[in-house]
Amino acid sequence: MKKLMILGGSRYAIPVIKKAHELGIYVITCDYLPDNIAHKYSDAYYNVSIIDKKAVLDVALRLNIDGITSFACDPGVITAAYVAEKMGLPSCGSYESICILQNKARFRRFLKEHGFNVPQAYSFKDINSAVNYHDFDYPVIVKPVDSAGSKGVSRVDAKEQLEKAVKHAFDYSITNEIIIEDFLEKDGFSSDTDCFSIDGVLKFVSFNSQRFDESSETPYVPAAYSWPSTMSYEAEEYLKADIQRLISLLKLKTSIYNIETRVAKNGKPYIMELSPRGGGNRLAECLCYATGINLIDGVVRAAVGLPVEGIIQKPYQGFWAEVILHSTKTGIFKDLWISDEISEFVFEKDLWISQGDKVYSFDSANKAVGTLVFRFNEATVLERVMRNIKCFVRVLVEK
């Protein structure tokens, strides 16, 4: 029986564990939080920090694993690449390539060196250097080079706001490094969704419309998605070519990728992030609903060296949307209200809390309380509902 180690224990790992079990694979989960929900589904759990590469390697060697992955868990991606390289296990690419992708400063430099569209960016390893640098053209985005889920991210419109944002970003950086880059005003919606390559060839590409809740404490945490995207055909084709070129330059092989892209007001398409992992917020699951393509099956097979089958480009069957259920204030969950007007479009409701549970203000992705998946027959209906989602869906919270 093959053994698969999964780094992280969030609920987003559960479909990966279930798929592995379907394929007859023994699953080991690792992190430092034994109460994480995914550990209830795995065959074994080891309490080890997933950012401690050597500690994870020690466990992996002791268990003689056949594969390792960090699905929808950004902090474990580098460790998974490290362990795979040390043990000669299947991997999406070299440890060095993964380190470039997982460090926002290195990634920006790589893009610039190879002629990709890229915002002007500066990296800093101490607060004073960042605060006293004078060559910024405001507005800028300040963020850790190594965090996910929009943790530590701030927009700064003027010099007097910079120090607070810099300190906030450093608070969330594992490696004590931040990046400050030009804020690219997007034209239409940005995209944040999953793609897949096999042997270095991009086989499945998706773009979506990433939506935010401007009333949230942190308005940069994705609050909803819809497929297909509203980008132009030309922009999508440009980005497909750039994604393939990036995969080729880094000599990446077989992997799922969570990719953020946008078209800026200057008319240029940009790859903002490309991480060799599945995205959070159940993106791969939604893509399976929309296209029938099971990217999670591909993830598991690739991780343990089995042939990857059935990953091809297919059109969306209808118009799809996912709402990330959340509260804009901290309190006690009372109920989830869904208007009867849109009930016919609800494809799936996945609520992670019960009446009386405490919920928290939506300032990062891990404060979500569930998801709603919708299927529409017309793009106009999707857009009307999504633009007015607060009129149709509410997480009811009381103090």
How would you describe this structure to a colleague?
There is one protein chain. The protein is of the alpha+beta class. Strand 1 (3-7), helix 1 (14-22) and strand 2 form a beta-alpha-beta unit. Helix content is 28%, strand content 27%. It is built from twelve helices and 20 strands. The chain has a five-stranded antiparallel β-sheet with strand order 11-12-15-19-17. Helix 2 (53-63) crosses helix 3. It has three domains: 3-89, Rossmann fold, CATH 3.40.50; 120-182, 2-Layer Sandwich (Dna Ligase, domain 1); 191-398, 2-Layer Sandwich (D-amino Acid Aminotransferase, Chain A, domain 1), CATH 3.30.470.
Keywords:
399 residues, alpha+beta, Rossmann fold, Dna Ligase, domain 1, D-amino Acid Aminotransferase, Chain A, domain 1, 3 domains, five-stranded antiparallel beta sheet, four-stranded parallel beta sheet, 12 helices, 27% strand
**Using DSSP, what is the number of strands?**
20
State the end-to-end distance.
50 Å
Average predicted confidence as pLDDT: 96
| Biggest β-sheet: strands ordered side by side in the sheet | 11-12-15-19-17
**What composes the largest sheet?**
5 strands, antiparallel
CATH homologous superfamily designation of the largest domain: ATP-grasp fold, B domain
Q: Assign the CATH architecture of the largest domain.
A: 2-Layer Sandwich
User: Are there runs of 5+ residues with pLDDT below 50, and where?
Assistant: none
| Beta-strand fraction estimate | 25-35%
What is the CATH top level name of the largest domain?
Answer: Alpha Beta
CATH topology of the largest domain: D-amino Acid Aminotransferase, Chain A, domain 1
**Helical content band:** 25-40%
